[in-house]
Amino acid sequence: MAADPGAVPGRLARLRARLRPQLARLERTFGFGTRGGVINATLAVSALCALLSLLRGQDANWDLRNYHVYNAWALLEGRLGIDLAPAQLQSYFVPLLDVPYFLLVQHAPAPLAGILLGLLHGLAFLPVAWIARCALAGDPRRDWLAPLLGLAGLASAAFLSELGNTMGDASTAPLVLGALALMLPDDHGRWRTRRTVLAGALLGAAVAFKLTNAIYAVALGLAVLAPSLPWRARIRAGVVLTLAALAVFALLAGPWLYRLWSVFGNPLFPQFNAWFQAPLAAPVAVADTRWLPQGWGEALLRPLLFTANPYLVSEIALLQVTWALLYVAALAALAMWLIRLPGRRREGAPRDGTRARRMLGVFFLAGFALWLAMFSIHRYLVVLELLAPLALWLLLHGLLPHRIAGRAAVAAIGLGALVALAGWNDWGHAGWARTAFRVQPPPGAPVGTVLLVGSEPQAWRVPFLPPGPAYASVGSNFPESPAYAARVEELLRAGGGEAAAILPVVMDRRAESVDRRNRWAGRLGLDAGDCRVLRWLAGRSRSLRLVEPAQSPSGRCRLAQAADRVQRAEDANQALLADAATVLARYGLRLDPAACAVVDSRIGRQAHPYHWCRLAPEPG
Known about the structure:
By secondary structure, the chain is of the alpha+beta class. 56% of the residues lie in helices and 8% in strands.
């Protein structure tokens, strides 16, 4: 029997009719047409981000272990001038953003810090959705499209990678985006002074908390010049925004930068020391240039290249396709504009949302160009990736006929969100414990000076070690100068010659997975009898072996790592100690690997043991 060609459209029409009341209820509850809808949507998205942050676990990223914990403690304890770069060159970053987290994990359960970080990061939804609502002025669907585009922005690779962590890009994104939202002209094409001052305050705070946000401050300054408004109004708004941003930046970051200038002779110490010539650092412009494109060809193709190979712009794979889609759509839009340019007439009064779209476009392009030239590090794109679904929506609606533009935009944005969610990667988490950081004290008598050797992140332990010593890094990523080496020797003499070194312990994280499997095997009774399941697991893996009951201290079967994996970790630790001995010899110190003790320390439930090695002067 032939199928009725009208059956499918008819069923779709009936489905739409059934869903219409529910969709209308959702729009009334979460739509941006009312203040209540804005509040409800923001609270719901922030709560979702808080829950996801809690599920991710305790933050344990490299930057946290290197400087976020130490810098906050050092500020509160007045360690500037006492210690010498324990957190390597990052020891002297503006520490304000790190203080609330440090105080929170000191005085409250660690999971609460994760929840609050998730709430903070979720607040980025509000300015993104509000910017979308302004840019979609004249579209009758904007009240429900705006929150959906805001939510799609949160489903981006860079934002997801930092959700609930302390790296700062996601934490300061609400400030940058809030400044952009406030700077969009009102319905009458005006900038209100109070809103402009508030936008400048948010922007100045964002840059003070994280200096890499300076690219977005410049981008927003350029965007203010874009809308078709009288030049006098544009310049006035730009000046007010700039002055407010500079005032707040000076208020927040100024005291710290002045202290660095007073102590070291460089307000950005040790960065840009080719200009400032501070004696304790080498006269070089410290910058991470390994991510920058090599030549104009690579720069022009950058969005396509790092979509295909995410390691071009990141230490971890942040999978996404949105930048490639944006790149293709932007090139098509540019080609269409050039084709139409000869026949363009002078525009009359701007249509609804035109000013907001122009500001958004200039902010996006300028921000990306500055990012490409200065950093080319993926996670610094959090702000732009949050806006990317909106930008893609606007580009496709400018390129395609109205009847298909919406479907194409939904497909493209949906694909981008699905790829980012499916490839969700992060910078390191551990299982939750009530106490975020636990460090066992080292054995033996106290020492006067402790040297942190190597470029691995170690300074997070310092606030939890017994008080008394001065701490300094050697052989780290800090650009040491002869004066730096002399200062280390001064610290050693001031400490009475009693010194010790801290080094990391190389661990195979698979050992923790093996321990978890053994715990579950014990709970389920799989480690008794013939141990069939454990025997099957060990037989199918090259990295596992089965310890029979007769050889097990508990008298039960257990899984263990293969001997070659254990040996590799031991060899790596011996090589690490040998390298440290070479570094310390430059300071006239001798490290005896046999005298080093392994001491327990933990982030959440994750073990991060360290070597504690007492040092002696080199003979002769």
